[in-house]
Specification:
190 residues, alpha+beta, 2 domains, Glucose Permease (Domain IIA), 11 strands
Length: 190
């Protein structure tokens, strides 16, 4: 076995141990939550409100997780030779204000890249915008990518800045930026 193969195996073993310990800790926290609900029914109302009625902010969860458990499982050290590369920035010929965001004129069937790292939190139809993908970026800003084909990405996928997320249906791409439900000025983010 080569030294490179041995290093890959050691890294993989370490990552598996980290993953298993994090799963165990998460399971313990879940079980403690269930015990709290069983002991006091008012805790159930609190959990129901915060989990089912409010949007889960993955950025806050990630910050808490990093504070108490360290970085998430890192797989950046493993590189596969046949991994496709798509690292782009949004290119457009014209930009105008459109309702709560911006309308960008792009090429037909434009391959849309992610503006920042984040998690896909919504895929579906938005009235007056069409098929939409919402990505909650690591900086806490939600970005709506609209008028796109949504079959190239799945809910809760993690995307990196510049990763391919969708293809436009026409030559228009709609972008909306929100933070905590407030619409932000698109000029500050494009």
């Amino acid at each position: 076995m080569s030294e490179k193969t041995i290093k890959k195996k050691l890294i993989l073993k370490k990552q598996i141990k980290q993953l298993l310990s994090k799963i165990m800790i998460t399971s313990i926290i879940f079980l403690l939550g269930m015990i709290l609900v069983k002991q006091n029914p008012s805790n159930k109302v609190l959990i129901q409100k915060n989990v089912y009625e409010e949007n889960i902010k993955f950025v806050k969860f990630k910050e808490l997780y990093k504070k108490y458990f360290g970085n998430l499982l890192s797989i950046n050290n493993i590189v596969y030779e046949d991994t496709p590369v798509f690292k782009e920035q949004i290119e457009y010929s014209k930009i105008t204000k459109y309702k709560d965001g911006a309308e960008l004129i792009v090429q037909e069937n434009y391959m849309v890249p992610s503006l920042e790292n984040g998690i896909v939190v919504y895929i579906g139809e938005k009235e007056e915008y069409g098929q939409t993908i919402i990505i909650e970026q690591e900086n806490g800003i939600d970005v709506f990518y609209s008028n796109v084909n949504t079959n190239d990405i799945n809910l809760y996928d993690y995307v990196k800045k510049g990763d391919y997320i969708a293809q436009t249906k026409t030559n228009k791409l709609y972008l909306i930026f929100q933070k905590n439900g407030d619409v932000l000025n698109y000029k500050d983010y494009i």
